[in-house]
Structure formats: structure tokens, C-alpha cells
Specification:
This protein is α/β, with parallel strands linked by helices. The chain is globular. About 25% of the residues are buried.
């Protein structure tokens, strides 16, 4: 299982190493993770591209960029289950939609569990559950 939390833990190592966590690099999987997480433009603008050191906790990046590294890391891990806990809360609506569409269309063999306060994050879900009056309820999908 891979988990993406609202606050991604990042390290004072390169952009690349923060995604791969210093494991052997699988270029196909890396390219897929970067594409799905919408990071190509971010990397293109970095001084040393993917080899740029991002600073402790990713201080050189925005909150949304940090979250997208967390998403790319989870995709790169290639686990059968991916838990997204407010993983897109710092993204603008357009980027969030692109990321979620890419996750759902390109990772069809994975089980995705998404937790979000934004209903737009969950609009393509097969099932939506919500807590109401301390009860877990399943919402009907059309």
C-alpha cells in the first residue's frame, strides 16, 4: 500500500530522489509517475531539472508541488492499493482535476481510496462514503 498524506515528508535531496526514495530508477515508472502527478512543467523550470535539491521539507516548492511529489512517490512505489488522504488539498481545482483524471484513467489496476473534504475530488469514485451524525453512510452514485 502506498499512502499520500496532506503534508508530504520531503528531504534535502534531489527532486528525483524524493520520488524514488533512492531506489533503483525505473525510467518508465518514473516517467509515468511524473506525468500523472503533473510535474513535467515544475521539473522543466528547476535550475538542475530533476536533479535539483529541493531543500529540507521541500522549502523551495509550493504546497501543491510538494503534494504532487508525494503522489508521484506513491505511484512510483507501484503498490496495488493507494490511499490519498487530502492529497490534493493544496492544488488548484484545474490541476487537481488533471491529477485525479490521470490517476483514475492510468492506474485502473489499482485500488484508490481517497479521503477529501472537496466533493470534486471524489466525483469519479465508484463509491462515496460520508460520515453523518457519527454514522458511516454510502451515498448513491448515478
Amino acid at each position: 500500500m502506498s499512502i499520500v498524506l496532506q503534508e508530504t515528508e520531503l528531504f534535502n535531496i534531489s527532486f528525483l530522489e524524493n520520488i524514488t526514495m533512492s531506489k533503483e530508477v525505473n525510467l518508465d515508472l518514473l516517467e509515468t509517475a511524473i506525468k500523472i502527478a503533473q510535474l513535467n512543467d515544475v521539473i522543466k523550470d528547476l535550475p538542475e531539472k530533476i536533479n535539483t535539491v529541493i531543500g529540507e521539507k521541500g522549502v523551495r516548492l509550493s504546497g501543491g508541488q510538494r503534494q504532487r511529489i508525494g503522489i508521484a512517490r506513491a505511484i512510483y512505489k507501484n503498490a496495488p492499493i493507494m490511499l490519498l488522504d487530502e492529497a490534493t488539498s493544496n492544488l488548484d481545482i484545474e490541476t487537481e482535476k488533471k491529477v485525479m483524471n490521470a490517476i483514475l484513467s492510468q492506474l485502473k489496476d489499482k485500488t484508490i481510496i481517497a479521503i477529501s473534504h472537496r466533493l470534486s475530488t471524489l466525483e469519479q469514485a465508484n463509491y462515496i462514503y460520508k460520515f453523518e451524525d457519527r454514522k458511516l453512510l454510502r451515498e448513491k452514485k448515478d
